[in-house]
Structure formats: structure tokens, C-alpha cells
Amino acid sequence: xxxxxSAPEPLSLRxxxxxxxxxxxxxxxxxxxxxxxxxxxxxxxxxIDGLLEGEDVHATAAALRxxxxxxxxxxxxxxxxxxxxxxxxxxxxxxxxxxxSGTSTRLLMGLVASHPVTATFVGDASLSARPMGRxxxxxxxxxxxxxxxxGGRLPLTMTGRCPAVPLRYALPVASAQVKSAVLLAGLNTPxxxxxxxxxxxxxxxxxxxxxxxxxxxxxxxxDGRAIGVMxxxxxxxxxxxxxxxxxxxxxxxxxxxxxxxxxxTLTGVGVNPTRDGLLRVLERxxxxxxxxxxxxxxxxxxxxxxxxxxxxxGIEVPPEVAPRMIDEYPALFVAAALAHGTxxxxxxxxxxxxxxxxxxxxxxxxxxxxVAVEELPDGLVVHGRGGDPVPxxxxxxxxxxxxxxMSFAVLGLRSTAAVTVDDTRPIATSFPGFVDxxxxxxxxxxx
Length: 447
Ligand code: S3P
Known about the structure:
Layout lengths: L19 E5 L4 H13 L1 E7 L5 H12 L3 E6 L2 E7 L11 E2 L4 H12 L4 E5 L2 H4 L4 H9 L3 E5 L3 E7 L8 E3 L5 H12 L4 E6 L6 H8 L4 E6 L2 E7 L8 E3 L4 H13 L4 E8 L6 H8 L3 E10 L2 E9 L7 E2 L11 H10 L3 E4 L12 H11 L3 E5 L2 E5 L6 E3 L2 E2 L5 H10 L3 E3 L2 E2 L12 H7 L7
Parallel strand pairs: 1-14, 2-13, 5-6, 9-10, 17-18, 21-23, 22-24
Antiparallel strand pairs: 2-4, 3-4, 6-8, 7-8, 10-12, 11-12, 14-16, 15-16, 18-20, 19-20
Helix pairs in contact: 1-2, 1-7, 2-3, 3-5, 3-6, 5-6, 8-10, 8-12, 10-11, 10-12
The chain binds shikimate-3-phosphate.
């Protein structure tokens, strides 16, 4: 997983006709990681339907197996987990290979932090460049100890403390990964562990932990939302259905909006209000997106989305929305490139520490495709083509980043000359089947 032995797989996607069809996207990545982790900490059998079978989630499953959980794939999308109980994680015999997955790494570090376990985390070049100090700091305050590569990065060996020390921690960055790491450490810590967040970040951990029977408190305080977990919890196994991933749906939504005449229905997409910022921003830009069949699946709001090609107009995107759509900015940049007028997006410093520096990499790729952009320290200004296609004709580097690869594949649907993504292998981390799904809607790859 860490060093793909295969050769790069370049790709261009084109669309000469409208995109049409009804499709569903794979399971939500964030929810899939959490379902496996909480199942691994419950005593008994958890059944998960719709699990994302992407490389990132496989990395989580492998690590949990290495620490004693029994996890099997019964049939496509249906998984069973027999957990070890909170406090029951075992010492892994070898290093845990996290591949490309920041979520696996940071949340599993939270679990290890309050277990009497020493674990080594390794990852690919992208993950090994990402900051881990944001989790080692609070987990260190709870008693865990760390030996890291320079800059607090992977490879990293940590030893948990049992019993750990409960903590009240104000998040210095809006990060659901850091929030979740501390809450997960709190599960096996005596007393109450509290995380305070100024801006709401995705709340899947809180929702699902409640479903598993953990005592979760949520209080609005002058400093923000205080989320507490009562430690030494006993988790009860669950049956979980994972909704479709809105972060994957984002690429199909933007594709349907920018290819003239398109109309695409996406069924069963998670529309948790802590994740639906892209829908709200696109709607403000003039997008025709209808939510139907709204329902609740596994404690999460879900809807079918009917997306019709639309004339978009650039806006100033409020920075406060960033935590609710942090992974969707690359797709939004593509929508902005085809819009009328200018779209200004700020408050995105976090994008620089994702699987790649998504501001720099998107700015370079868009410019290479003939889109006028201005890179800001914490954002991007995109001057839209006003309804004309982008010139295209470039090969862009995906830089081990699945969302960069999918963004430029989508941009190529509305470009005069083809846009080639140099390597689409990273797409398998979050959206296996992306290319086939695009083809089923009418996109094609030129010979
Ligand atoms: C995730 C949280 C986000 C997001 C990532 C998944 C999660 O990261 O970018 O893809 O599952 O908690 P941050 O919390 O660091 O912003």
C-alpha cells in the first residue's frame, strides 16, 4: 500500500454529450473508518453495510486486526467486526501501514494513546509529509509518549498510557480528526475527556459513539461547542449502514453542473449539516440541486440529489463554511473555473496540509489548463470562464492526492483540448470505481 509497485495510470475524461443517469457513490470514508474502529472496541459482533472498500479504509481494518479485532468482508459492502472491548487492544507485532490515510493514522493514534500498547505508524510519501503534532500534543498531555521523524511526522512510534489522564482540550485548528483522536483516547480514560471546538467540524464520531452506547455530552459554551465522552466506556455492538460519501458525490455534482444539458441523480448521499457546505455554496452560485427522499440512515441524514447543469456565478465564499466542506474545495475550484465572474475562497490554510498542498497543486493545474487564478496564503481566487470551456491541453500532476486526480478528470469534461491526469491510482483510496461511474454517465476516454 505504501509504495504502489504498479506503473502510473494516466487518464483523460471527455464528454461530448450531456451526462445522464442515476447512480450511487461508495460509502462515506469518515463513517467507514469510525464504524470499523468502534466495532473493534465493542464486545460482540458489529455488522456494517455499505462500507467504503477503498485503500484508506482497508488500512484501518488491517491495523485493527493487528491489534486483535476480527474483521471479515462477508460480501461486497457487508462487513462483520468482532471487537476486543474498550481497553482490550493488543500490541501489534509489526508496524501499522497507514498508506495514504491521515484519518486512519490520527484516529488510531487516539485509540492507542490510552492502551498499554506500543505501535509504529508508517505511511506513503504524502502521509509522511503531513503534520502529526496536532494529535501528538493533546495525546501527550493525556500521557502517551512519542518518537517521531523530524517535524513530528511519520514514521512515528508511540506508547499509550493506561490509565491515561482525562483532558479538556480547545482545538487550535478546526479538525474533526484531532477532535476524534482525543475523544477516542477518552474512551479508555477514567473520568470525562472534553474537546472544545470553535467552528463545528464533522460530528460522525459523536453520533456513532452515542449509537454504540457511549455517554457523550454536547454543551454550547462561550468558547464553542464542548464535546465530552465519559471514559471506561462499554460499547455495544451495532448494525450500521454507511451513507454515500458526499465528498465523492462532489465530483459527480460538479461534473453534472458544468457539462451542458446534464441531469444526474445521486441516490443515498449523506447530507449531514456538518458536511453539506458544498451544496449550500453551489446553490448560492446558482446550481440546480434538488434534495429528495430525505431520510435518516444509521443516525445520519441522507438524501437523493438531482443535479441539473446550471449557469454558475462566482461568489465570495464565506470562510466560516470551510470546516463543513474542507475536502470539497478542489471540486469547487473546478466549478468556479467554469462560472461567470470571480470566486474568492479564503480561510483554507488547512488545505495546504491535506494529501497534497491543495491550494498550490490546484492553482498550478488550473493555470496550466488556461484558467486565471490567484493563489493566496489561505485561499484561491478563480476567474471563471463565463460559460466557455477551459482551454485545457495540459497534463497535471495528481501528487498522490485522490481529490486532485478526480478534480482534473472532471475539468477535462468541459475543456477545449483534453486534460490529462498523470496518475489516477490514488483515486482508489476513497472512490474505487470512479472512472467506470463517470463512463456510465456518458463520459469517455479518448484513444
Ligand atoms: C476527516 C476529517 C477532515 C477531512 C478528512 C477526513 C475525518 O480532516 O479532511 O478527509 O474523517 O475526520 P481534518 O479533520 O484534519 O480537517
